[in-house]
């Protein structure tokens, strides 16, 4: 089975590639990644050492490239496209929305059109619960909840979801959309809450918490999400949307306090800062459809997933240091030059 995975050097994409290569001996993956600041080829160094040129191929490129993407579709006979590529940090989208619209909207459209012309049998578009907007103190998002995005990031993802829907209804393309709650786990770029708090706690630095810290998120361990995307690939119905959640609602303050407790640090490090504009108050995901149609449920509790995540960061402090300093880019350049020599 030949798969085109876009954004495979990012946090979720690299975990998905690791999982698929380890779980399916007949899978061949082409990873198309632009290598923005959040794309780290070192995440897949082991996979490349084992499978490069055979079961795994890396292509440095942009999903917006209207020549490269169709050329890849012709060069490889893909059984499916899985679109993980996205600009994904809300704060960055508030500062500069343009890259989010470019990659998340125009890039998705370019992929969809190239896949349509190449008659790719399956297309899985990975999205987010943020397209649904915000919830009050009760209730959950279902796949039928109207889209009501509140940030430039979530608006760009909602737009890409609607393009996927349009390609299914207009052209009959076998497109499926997945929406997940907040991911956490190994290889997450440290601009996101959990790795950022871990880093600051490990250095006994002040930990900024937006507003009153009572914003609620449903947290899903990244490998549970990857299993959901895998199930969608093999069992999903064209045109369907599937939600994946961790059944683990926590306030931001609860998450920070748990990390401080697990790292043995004082809550005195918590510093409340001015809330960001348009900050959604609460997300919560219902995933009954995914359970019924795909046989999927999360396998990791929040406490178990968090313990695994912090243990990984502790065992991989060199990875964190290189990501913080930017040295990971030089490391991979040298690593590939050595292999090619």
From TrEMBL:
<keyword id="KW-0456">Lyase</keyword>
<dbReference type="InterPro" id="IPR036291">
    <property type="entry name" value="NAD(P)-bd_dom_sf"/>
</dbReference>
<feature type="domain" description="NAD(P)-binding">
    <location>
        <begin position="4"/>
        <end position="308"/>
    </location>
</feature>
<comment type="similarity">
    <text>Belongs to the NAD(P)-dependent epimerase/dehydratase family. dTDP-glucose dehydratase subfamily.</text>
</comment>
<keyword id="KW-0520">NAD</keyword>
<dbReference type="GO" id="GO:0009225">
    <property type="term" value="P:nucleotide-sugar metabolic process"/>
</dbReference>
<dbReference type="GO" id="GO:0008460">
    <property type="term" value="F:dTDP-glucose 4,6-dehydratase activity"/>
</dbReference>
<protein>
    <recommendedName>
        <fullName>dTDP-glucose 4,6-dehydratase</fullName>
        <ecNumber>4.2.1.46</ecNumber>
    </recommendedName>
</protein>
<dbReference type="InterPro" id="IPR016040">
    <property type="entry name" value="NAD(P)-bd_dom"/>
</dbReference>
<dbReference type="InterPro" id="IPR005888">
    <property type="entry name" value="dTDP_Gluc_deHydtase"/>
</dbReference>
<dbReference type="Pfam" id="PF16363">
    <property type="entry name" value="GDP_Man_Dehyd"/>
</dbReference>
């Amino acid at each position: 089975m030949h798969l085109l995975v876009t954004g495979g050097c990012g946090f979720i994409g690299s975990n998905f590639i690791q999982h698929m290569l380890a779980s399916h001996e007949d899978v061949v993956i082409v990873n198309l990644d632009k290598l923005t600041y959040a794309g780290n080829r070192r995440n897949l160094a082991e996979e490349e050492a084992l499978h490069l040129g055979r079961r795994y191929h890396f292509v440095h490129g942009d999903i917006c490239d209207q020549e490269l993407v169709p050329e890849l579709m012709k060069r490889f006979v893909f059984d499916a496209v899985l679109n993980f590529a996205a600009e994904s940090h809300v704060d960055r989208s508030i500062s500069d929305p343009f890259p989010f619209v470019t990659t998340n909207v125009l890039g998705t459209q370019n992929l969809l059109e190239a896949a349509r012309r190449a008659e790719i049998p399956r297309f899985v578009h990975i999205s987010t619960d943020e397209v649904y907007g915000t919830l009050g103190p009760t209730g959950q998002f279902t796949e039928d909840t109207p889209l009501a995005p509140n940030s430039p990031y979530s608006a760009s993802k909602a737009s890409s979801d609607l393009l996927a829907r349009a390609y299914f209804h207009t052209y009959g393309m076998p497109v499926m959309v997945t929406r997940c709650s907040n991911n956490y786990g190994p290889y997450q770029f440290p601009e996101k809450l959990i790795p950022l708090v871990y880093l600051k706690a490990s250095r006994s630095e002040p930990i900024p918490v937006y507003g009153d810290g009572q914003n609620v998120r449903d947290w899903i361990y990244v490998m549970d999400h990857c299993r959901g995307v895998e199930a969608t690939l093999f069992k999903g119905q064209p045109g369907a949307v599937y939600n994946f959640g961790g059944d683990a609602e926590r306030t931001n303050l609860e998450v920070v306090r748990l990390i401080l407790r697990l790292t043995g640090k004082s809550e005195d490090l918590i510093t409340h800062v001015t809330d960001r504009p348009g900050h959604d108050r609460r997300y919560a995901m219902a995933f009954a459809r995914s359970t019924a149609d795909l046989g999927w449920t999360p396998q990791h509790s929040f406490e178990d997933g968090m313990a695994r995540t912090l243990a990984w960061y502790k065992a991989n402090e060199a990875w964190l240091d290189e990501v913080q300093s930017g040295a990971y880019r030089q490391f991979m350049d040298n690593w590939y030059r050595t292999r090619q020599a």
